[in-house]
Amino acid sequence: MDQYDHKGQTRLNNPPVGLVTPETDRLNGKTRYAYDPHLDPQLTWAGKSEHQSIEVTRVSLHVHERIDPATTIHALRQAKSTGRQMSLFEFSRE
What we know:
The protein is low in regular secondary structure.
């Protein structure tokens, strides 16, 4: 397992220079996504089925997403296993 470590840096989650520019990552504004109401059944929230498209506020992923592989793998190794695979519809009684 490898991960990037930036020891001694004050802003650890900055993307490399030139990777993100105002032209490639606009923080302001909304993006319109069209969808086809004639597609196969899918999960739709109340009030959304009448519209032909939705607007979603764009958020820069590199600013809000913080993934540390070492922490994730450490948490998985610490999780206790029952030794059997649970059913999809079974719930834990812990």
